[in-house]
Structures are given as C-alpha cells and as structure tokens.
Amino acid sequence: MSEGNISLTEAAASRVREFMAREGGIGLRVDVRRTGCSGWAYDVGIAQGASDGDHVFEDQGLKVVVSDKALPMVSGTTVDFVHDGLVREFRFRNPNVTGECGCGESFTVAG
C-alpha cells in the first residue's frame, strides 16, 4: 500500500458494504472537522465520488477517499467497526493522535 494509506478491518469493510448496498457510492470517505475540546473529530460517510485533491486508497476491496486537509491527520489510520451491546460505531487507531478529550469525541495531532 502507498504511504499515508488508510486501512479497514474486516468488520469495518463489512459495515461499509452494508451502507453501500443501501446508498450506493464508491467506498468510505474519511475526513475531519473542527470540534470538541481537543480540536478535531472524524467525519465519515459513504463517498459518492472523489474530487480534485482527494486521495483514494483501496483496502478490503473498497475505496477509501480522504481529503487533502485530513490526510496529514489520519495518515496510517486503521478504521474498525465495533458492535458492543447497544454501541455500534466506527473506531479509529490513528498513530498521529497526541491527545484525546475525556469524552472521546475529539482528538489532537502534533504540529
């Protein structure tokens, strides 16, 4: 895989395929937005296409689309999907994170 890639666990890929079966699209879009007490939050959804400046990776037979703005913050991240009791959510193992808020809603990256 190329440097900066985003990878998916089997559970995450399966969940993305479920969404794509209902909504169409080309894969998973991973982005970030300013929020919370630590500064950034993940913003994920089904990618309907890729724009100029987007980076497109492939893993588990799916495309993962990442914006130019988000790539430095999410480079090398593994996306997982967890179903634990009533909780169903995507979780991120991001090697760039230097801190997270107490509620787990936002994160900080160096530099």
The CATH architecture designation is Sandwich
Main sheet: which strands, in order across? 3-2-5-4
**Element pattern in H and E:** EHEEEEHEEEE
Profile the largest sheet: 4 strands, mixed
CATH superfamily membership, which one? HesB-like domain
Residues in helices, as a percent range: 10-25%
The share of residues in extended strands comes to over 45%
> Average pLDDT, to the nearest integer?
87
Give the overall shape.
Answer: globular
The number of distinct β-strands equals: 9
Tell me the domain tally.
1
CATH class: Mainly Beta
Briefly note the structural class of the backbone: alpha/beta
Return residue spans where pLDDT drops below 50 for at least 5 consecutive residues: none
Count the DSSP helices.
2
Any idea of the CATH topology?
A: Hypothetical Protein Aq_1857, Chain: A
What Rg, in angstroms, do the CA atoms define? Answer: 14 Å
Q: What is the CA-CA span between the terminal residues?
A: 25 Å
